[in-house]
Amino acid sequence: MIIKPDYNLKCVYDINFDDLENQGIKVIMFDLDSTIMISKSGCYRPETEEWLKEVNEKFTVAVISNNKSEEYIEKVQKISNFTVIGHASKPNPKKMKQYLDSLGVTPQEAVMVGDRPLTDIVAGKLLGCKTILVDSINAENENIPTRLVRWLERRVIR
Ligand SMILES: [Mg+2]
């Protein structure tokens, strides 16, 4: 299977929000770990927090995470000014669909942003929304096995 994200970016901060706005995007769904937060850290970097604040002023923002720990998700929800949904079971797009339905927004008006092709991007594709693949927010500090898995997983992208 070839998975082609609409955008393949080096960094989450490279997202062109004016471009998304011009395409009628209203909702931005972010994966959590490694996309906007260092994996399992439970807190945003100060610069990410500032950046998210700006994004949240222009768009409806949500986090869609596969993390199954209610405690962790609650902790992240407390420090976020937007909806945080856990236990999403991506690539199953069900929770994303439910979330968009609750807003009365169509998949065409939404984008999924994540660091994993086989979960985040496939979920977006199955839902029918735009997709943005980003490299890990902590790429420079990841160990070699993690980088190798990322490299292998990206072989499916064209
Ligand atoms: Mg991730």
Summarize, please:
37% of the residues lie in helices and 16% in strands.
The count of domains is: 1
Oligomer: single chain
Catalogue the unreliable spans: none
Task: Please give the number of β-strands.
Answer: 6
Output the helix-strand order: EHEHEHEHEHEH
Percent of sequence in beta strands: 15-25%
Strand order of the largest sheet: 1-6-5-2-3-4
The computed structural class is alpha/beta
Helix fraction?
Answer: 25-40%
Major sheet attributes: 6 strands, parallel
CATH superfamily: HAD superfamily/HAD-like
Identify the overall geometry.
Answer: globular
CATH level 1 name: Alpha Beta
The small molecules bound here are:
magnesium ion
Please tell me how large the radius of gyration is.
14 Å
CATH topology grouping = Rossmann fold
- Averaged pLDDT: 95
Query: What is the name of the CATH architecture?
Result: 3-Layer(aba) Sandwich
Total of helices: 6
Q: Mind sketching the topology for me?
A:
Elements: E1 7-9, H1 17-22, E2 27-30, H2 46-58, E3 60-64, H3 70-78, E4 83-85, H4 94-103, E5 110-114, H5 117-127, E6 130-134, H6 144-153
Parallel strand pairs: 1-6, 2-3, 2-5, 3-4, 5-6
Characterise this structure.
The chain has 158 residues and is α/β, with parallel strands linked by helices. It has one domain (7-156): HAD superfamily/HAD-like (Rossmann fold), CATH 3.40.50.1000. Helices cover 37% and strands 16% of the residues. It contains six helices and six strands, in the order E-H-E-H-E-H-E-H-E-H-E-H. The protein has helices at residues 17-22, 46-58, 70-78, 94-103, 117-127, 144-153, and strands at residues 7-9, 27-30, 60-64, 83-85, 110-114, 130-134. The model has no long low-confidence stretch (mean pLDDT 95). The chain binds magnesium ion.
